Each structure stands twice: as structure tokens, then as C-alpha cells.
């Protein structure tokens, strides 16, 4: 079993040596094992070192034109990660790395979206990421989109075009990604960013997890805002339950043409919600898990039909 604590943090620039030393100490104090950092502000042709004895592995994507933007991923020395591929963005907006963590294949993506055109930027990045990803995907960063609606009761939340959040969530649904923190805290109100200009709070930072790997998500926390204007967001992932290989599955649509099968599926889904819709299970997890139950039922019915067809063919062959 491999347990890893991932932490995402918009650090608002780390060019000052004293701030880098303080940040590295704080990363270790907060027990971050794999760090996703945004706004490092390192210039590509003159980037300072951010590694340390505790974080010997560092991967960077710096803006080539100025000391702005920039993302980095740091890995603690005790984390058994070996990088095999890395993809950088010359504009300092994203960084993809993939390799092995223990005996598991993993892809890590660190994103820092612009404050305008977020959905277009995210779509472009996720398209690239889709072709890069192998194994489990951990995608974290500062998305510059309020992830909670203004109706959810966060104090002094900013007024934002509601279509922005709606289009953002539609993109996540399209790529089967789930807001990890919100999944574990569906009714909690919290924030990761405070704007002193607008005097408003919002939750802009999170980790995105593919819905078929939600069972690996064990914890998610938001720490207080301290030396940056963003709060660090952490998740804990357990890798023991991830299969080494992932098989794709496609629905046999002919099964749905049978009225008896449709009724059997409807009864199974109804029974699932009756047995599992309890206060201990969050609504997003309940919904995602029901898809697994439905898929398992369809696989079972399909396998049964296949056996029946084979038996019928065998009987015909014998009769001939």
C-alpha cells in the first residue's frame, strides 16, 4: 500500500531566496509529499533552484518571456516516484509528468489558468493531457474559477458570471473529472483565496480526480491562508486499490432493447439507492458508485446472454 499526500499551492512568487527557504520549511512542516506549485515566477533562462534535501526531485515549467506565471512539482525524497516523461508549457501555464510511483503508473498535471478565457484554456490543456495520461491521473492547481456558487453561503463571495462556472463544470464532466475536495465536503463552505481589492473570498484551488479512481481519495483539506494570498489544498491518495491495468468497457446497447432486461436494471438501481442512500455517504460518491453497480449488472447480464447463446449453438451443432 502506498499513501501519498499531494498539496497544491499558489505561492505568489519564489524568486527571493529568503522566501524560498521559508516556503521549503513550511512545505515540510505541512507534510506535503508531492507539491503542485503555481506562480513560481521563475524566468526560464535564469531559474533558481527550488530543490532541497527533503525535496530532491523538482520539475518546472517556466514562462520564457518574463518572471511571471510558472508551475512546479516537487517530490519528497521518501516518495518512490520515477519520472519517465515530462511535458512543459512555454507560457508557464501547465506541467505534465508521468512515471511510476511504487509499482503503479501515475500522471501528474499542475495547472495555472488565466483569469480570462479559463474554459478555453482548460479545454486546450485537457485535450493535450488526455493524450499524455497513463495510469491514475492527479490534476491539481489554481483554476481561477470560483468552484462554489454564490448561493452556497461563502461570505463576501465575488459576483461571477454564472455561465463561467457552469461551462467549467461541463468540461470536467466531459473529461470525467471530479472536484476532489468538494466530493468529500459536499456541504462545507470554505475558500482558498482572499482578494483584498474586492474584499471577497472564493475557492479557486483544488485537485481533480477521474471518477473511476474516486475510491483512492481518502482525505481532502484546506489549510489557513498564511504567507501567500492562497491557501494550500491537500488530498491523501491510497494506491493499493488501483489495478495495474485499466480495461475499457463499452455498453452493449442491444441489451437495452429487451424490456425484461430494462426492468431488471431498473430494479437493481432502485435497490442500490434504497440500501446505500445514507447520511454517511456523500451524494457525489453515491452517484459515481451507482455507475459502477450499473456497469457490473450490465456485464453480468451480457455474460449470461453470451453463455446462453453458446449453449444454444452447442445444442444445434450436436443435433446436426
Automatic annotation (TrEMBL):
It comes from the Eukaryota. The record marks 144 as: Transition state stabilizer. GO terms for cellular component: nucleus. The record marks 205 as: Important for catalytic activity. The active site is at residues 112, 142, 230. The keyword Manganese applies. One of its GO terms (biological process) is base-excision repair. Its cofactor is Mg(2+); Mn(2+). It is an enzyme of class 3 (hydrolase). It holds the Pfam family Exo_endo_phos. It catalyses: Exonucleolytic cleavage in the 3'- to 5'-direction to yield nucleoside 5'-phosphates. Residues 7-230 form the Endonuclease/exonuclease/phosphatase domain. Keywords: DNA damage, DNA repair, Hydrolase, Magnesium, Manganese, Metal-binding. Probably binds two magnesium or manganese ions per subunit. Its EC number is 3.1.11.2. Mg(2+) binds at residues 10, 39, 142, 144, 229-230. GO terms for molecular function: DNA-(apurinic or apyrimidinic site) endonuclease activity; double-stranded DNA 3'-5' DNA exonuclease activity; metal ion binding; phosphoric diester hydrolase activity. The record marks 230 as: Interaction with DNA substrate. Belongs to the DNA repair enzymes AP/ExoA family. This is exodeoxyribonuclease III.
Amino acid at each position: 500500500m502506498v499513501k501519498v499526500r499531494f498539496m497544491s499551492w499558489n505561492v505568489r512568487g519564489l524568486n527571493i531566496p529568503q522566501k524560498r527557504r521559508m516556503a521549503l520549511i513550511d512545505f515540510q512542516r505541512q507534510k506535503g509529499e508531492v507539491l503542485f506549485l503555481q506562480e513560481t515566477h521563475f524566468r526560464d533562462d535564469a531559474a533558481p533552484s527550488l530543490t532541497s534535501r527533503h525535496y530532491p526531485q523538482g520539475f518546472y515549467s517556466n514562462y520564457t518571456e518574463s518572471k511571471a506565471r510558472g508551475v512546479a512539482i516537487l517530490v519528497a525524497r521518501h516518495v518512490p516516484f520515477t519520472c519517465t516523461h515530462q511535458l512543459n508549457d512555454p507560457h508557464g501555464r501547465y506541467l505534465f509528468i508521468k512515471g511510476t510511483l511504487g509499482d503503479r503508473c501515475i500522471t501528474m498535471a499542475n495547472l495555472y489558468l488565466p483569469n480570462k478565457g479559463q474554459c478555453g484554456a482548460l479545454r486546450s490543456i485537457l485535450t493535450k493531457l488526455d493524450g499524455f495520461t497513463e495510469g491514475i491521473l492527479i490534476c491539481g492547481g489554481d483554476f481561477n474559477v470560483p468552484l462554489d456558487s454564490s448561493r452556497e453561503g461563502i461570505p463576501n463571495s465575488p459576483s461571477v458570471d454564472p455561465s463561467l462556472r457552469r461551462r467549467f463544470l461541463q468540461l470536467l464532466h466531459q473529461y470525467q473529472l471530479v472536484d476532489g475536495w468538494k466530493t468529500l465536503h459536499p456541504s462545507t463552505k470554505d475558500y482558498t483565496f482572499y482578494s483584498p481589492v474586492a474584499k471577497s473570498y472564493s475557492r479557486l484551488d483544488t485537485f481533480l480526480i477521474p471518477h473511476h479512481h474516486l475510491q483512492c481519495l481518502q482525505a481532502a483539506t484546506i489549510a489557513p491562508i498564511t504567507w501567500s494570498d492562497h491557501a494550500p489544498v491537500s488530498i491523501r491518495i491510497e494506491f493499493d486499490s488501483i489495478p495495474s491495468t485499466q480495461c475499457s468497457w463499452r455498453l452493449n446497447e442491444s441489451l437495452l432493447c429487451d424490456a425484461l432486461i430494462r426492468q431488471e436494471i431498473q430494479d437493481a438501481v432502485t435497490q442500490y439507492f434504497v440500501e446505500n442512500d445514507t447520511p454517511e455517504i456523500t451524494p457525489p460518491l453515491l452517484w459515481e458508485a451507482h455507475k459502477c453497480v450499473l456497469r457490473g449488472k450490465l456485464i453480468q447480464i451480457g455474460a449470461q446472454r453470451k453463455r446462453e447463446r453458446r449453449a444454444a449453438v452447442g445444442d444445434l451443432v450436436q443435433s446436426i
